[in-house]
Amino acid sequence: MIRVVLADDQALVRAGFRLLLDTEDGFEVVGEAGDGAEAVRRAHEHRPDVVVMDIRMPGTDGLAATRQICAELPDVKVLVLTTFNVDEYVFEALRSGASGFLLKDTDPVELLHALTVVAEGEALLSPSVTRKLIEEFANRPEHRRPDPKALHVLTAREREILALVAAGMSNEEIAEHLVISPATSRTHVSRVMTKLGARDRAQLVVLAYESGLVSPRRG
Predict the structure, then answer these.
(1) Per-residue confidence band for 219, with pLDDT thresholds at 50, 70 and 90
(2) Residues 6+ apart with CB under 8 A from 54
(3) Considering the entire predicted model, what is its pTM?
(4) I need a labelling partner for 214 at 20 to 30 A (CA). Which of 47, 91, 102, 193 fits?
């Protein structure tokens, strides 16, 4: 059973998500919140598997709430909702520890899949949308990149693994690309996350772009 808290300032949006999840086996809505502060309280109260978080809310917004939840409740995953394909707040949410994001007009089947993926500890990284988002903001002149030496703790193979994660590849796709077993691929990814102190694959993607290991595509 995947336990979910819904955080959105629009009651009708929350009602729609609740109706969807209540009619599906394997999901339980354990709480709702109309703003970020309430989302944090509900997360502490219910310790859900996933918080579905709208970014744009009055008072404490979803970004601040995401940062607080990820810092205080490392076992609680945050799935961000946004209205736009490219949203700087979503990028900041990923940097704050969110496990991924979805557009609000996402097909219901995709939402259920996303909740399952995130609850299992993976990051929801859409190759077409997430990478576009990260490239957009990593490419800004004012964006500050850390010293590439920040990756000095990684071996050459681990840097290669990190670059493939940043390309949106799953563990199985990485295994096929490098001609290794899926178990070995998972081990490599886990080791990279540990060495870099990353919460999940979403943060690995951000680190890959910020460090300059992966260069944003232009045009």
Answers:
(1) very low
(2) 7, 8, 9, 10, 13, 62, 80, 81
(3) 0.71
(4) 102
